[in-house]
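Honest question from a wet-lab person: if I give you the sequences of every part of a complex, can you actually get the arrangement of the whole thing, not just the pieces? Trying it with mine:
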Amino acid sequence: MQEDKVKDKFYRDIANLTHPNEKLIKTHCSYCGMQCGMNLRVDTNKNKIIGVEPRYDWPVTLGKMCPKGVTAYQQTNHDDRIQFPLIRDDASRKGTKEGFREASWEEAYDLVVRKFKQIQGDYGKDAMSVFSGVSMTNEKCYLTGKFARVALQTRYIDYNGRYCMSSAAGGFNRSFGVDRGSTFPWTDLHQTDCLFLAGSNTAECHPTSLFRIWEVQERGGYIIVVDPRETPTARRADVHLDLRPGTDLALANCMVNLLIENGYVDEAFIQDHTNGFEETKQLVKQFTPAYTSAITGVDPEKLIRAAEIYGEAPNAIVAFARGIEQQIKGVDNVSGYVNMALVTGKIGRPKSGVATFTGQGNGQGGREHGQKSDNLPGYRKITNPEHVAEVCQVWGIKPEEMPKAGVSAHEMFGLMNEKTIRGLYLLCSNPAVSAPNSNYVRAALKNLDFMVCADFYLSESAEYADVVLPSVTWSEDEGTVTNLEGRVIKINKAQEPVGESKPDWLIQVELAERMGRGEYFRHLTSARLISDEFRLATKGGLADYYGATWEKIDQQDGVFWPCPDDEHKGTPHMFLDKKFNHPDGRAKICALPYRPPAEEPCNEYPLRLTTGRVVYHYLSGNQTRRIPFLNDMCPEPFVEVHPLTAKQYDISHDEKVRLYTRRGTAIYKVKVTEAIREDTVFVPYHFGHEQSINLLTIDALDPISRMPEFKACAAQIEKWEVSHNA
Amino acid sequence: MPDNHGNRKLYIELDNCIGCRACLAACTQCGGHEERNRNYVIDVNPLVDRQTMPIMCLHCVNPPCARSCPVQAIQIHETGAVLSAMVEKCLGCQNCTIACPYGIPKFDVEQSLMYKCDLCIDRTKVNIPPMCASVCPSNTLQWLTEEEIDRKMERHTLDNGTWVSSNPDPYLENETNVKISLPGILQNKIKLY
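Yes, you can. This is the full assembly:
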């Protein structure tokens, strides 16, 4: 917003460099939830994207980009783009790249529709499923939910946010009654006095937050980092709480206990605006520094110091990410850390609050508008008849036609394995790499009667498809995305689709027509028209986008939801009136008993395995592994091992080891580093096939968010024979 | 009005580096660099911690690379930027790669030509920040006015015996246009509370 530009100390008015025969298209990055502003350089003779130029006037990131952002444009005209629909006639070659032939759209659509109808005719509507993702625009996310319910008429739709943001959503909904990933705009971040970061390797996963984070220290404020590894962010932290993976809830309870014990609570705030304090106070009493240290392995003195710094801070922000969320108690961890803000009243005012670092580009918007098994546009619930009626009115169907709630992403693979689900339309996701316990997931994909995958590259998951439909990259379409602040922003089209590729929304509109459901879709002939219907469908919901028009987004540099009408400017800060979204207007301080990870180390599997990102790759790596610069920087996975652990196993730096768990095994090069706990090993998750660490991870799910416990399981290392190392 | 005037210089705050190498990726994107990056980011002690640092051309006031060039292929721009060797003059003798105290000039074996950072001269001559400092997400690389650099220098030239910024000698070999602060910027920082 204009106001931000004036206020933000980092903002400078800088003109862009332009070259002859070139135009700049302002847009945002295709990757993470930071959604860094960028300009794509377009050759006006060839009408092709040829490069990137910083977008200095984007108020959140001011031209800054990580190496993924700088090279993102190289995806568009990449040699690996799928240019035509692909059909594989020989199903025995599923699970490989082999056997595909190019086909026309007509032939592909005919086959897809024939198979969809056949499966649904033989086994019922619910035998078809949709597995989607949130690295795409709100318009596409919205339409995908509608496509599943109205065109396919199936209950089985879910999305990869179950591997990403669902625990944050569950925790925020429970604590606040609403799930907006950040209660403050990112331009507040550097102005806080204490930044408490839990389970976020910010420097590698959201690098363009770092200039603001370092500024907290430059100003004399404090950074506290909770992480089993000494990440580049933890390296500079004032206090690094180096806990055992999977023990966050104990640490959060200890923080709350110490804040209460040492008199840092805001009694008036608790009294007037929250429920659950007394019960929580009783529960956390047990979590003394000594008791918590025994569970977490963190020095009691550091726990005391961290609570003191947070408690003393005039303003403080608690922010977290997948480290705490990808656990069987991810939702509890979120509410547990949110408790710190609620007992001290450090929320509902500028420069204070809580936030989650959204992983995927549209991880926020994509979880609000109906791709989740029980969710409808505007953060409505499919289990609520009023909500169903509201959405049915927009869609023009009868409430009794609305399918019931389905199951979570990972549970869909279970239904594929037992043949309840027989057909799959997969888009914007690569679960053959990104889902836990890959052997189980890959078997499920192979077990399908028919699978369609829409993607712009032949992903590891596309290798299981019968038909691959070429979709477009983010740069060949337009629409809105909701970034990690909850700011709705605009992605702009910079060139025409490569080859015969089509945007996902167009594929769905055309498929719906052929499924005999065209009347509900054929008016949606542009992303703009979908946007208009989408905004209307959110009207009156918790996540109300009705007033977030494309014009307003352009004028204001984004619109923070909720934005219920044309006059409304949006809501950068949540809860300024101290009103939360539970029916009584109060936030919930949650009493959360500690429980250990689903799988604790034992004699056979004595190490704790945790996973995460490197700065050069995004999610399953289907995009970034194809970008030369990024692949050169990190061409293969590795296992990080502490030198004392390495010594114990007689393994050395760069040597290959076999890492294994109860579910799977993989061979990795060792990276010896003191920047990890002795009892913990780390492997990045961006790699496919036999290199995928998700062959080893556990698929134990959080009871509320159905998020798998990617971040903690029991593992063992074995020296890989010398002959193999040659 | 765009703030593309005033004499800004590159300033490096080493302690901020997170090793993302966006600077190297961006270096290939300035439009005049043949998509080759011209600087370095190193892991300081990779078996121990995650500390990294960029090694950028410091654009010496009296540059050894240019002085060592037998054919004056390395020109100095009026802004102080030490340019890459002119292709029509460069002999490929590699004197510059040996002369540079920081190991900056790179050598293209196939073309037998030296190439180095020119501080994105197309950008910086009109005071648009170089690509590396434009994108640097951690503010390790900053594009500052002389007054801003003076303020940094004041703060950073504390005589505590453990850390200093570039200039005066003996910490760097010579006077450089790019200013640099060695790790330790947070020492002696007075906390807010």
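Two things worth pointing out. The two ends of chain B are 38 Å apart (CA to CA). The mean pLDDT of chain B is 87.
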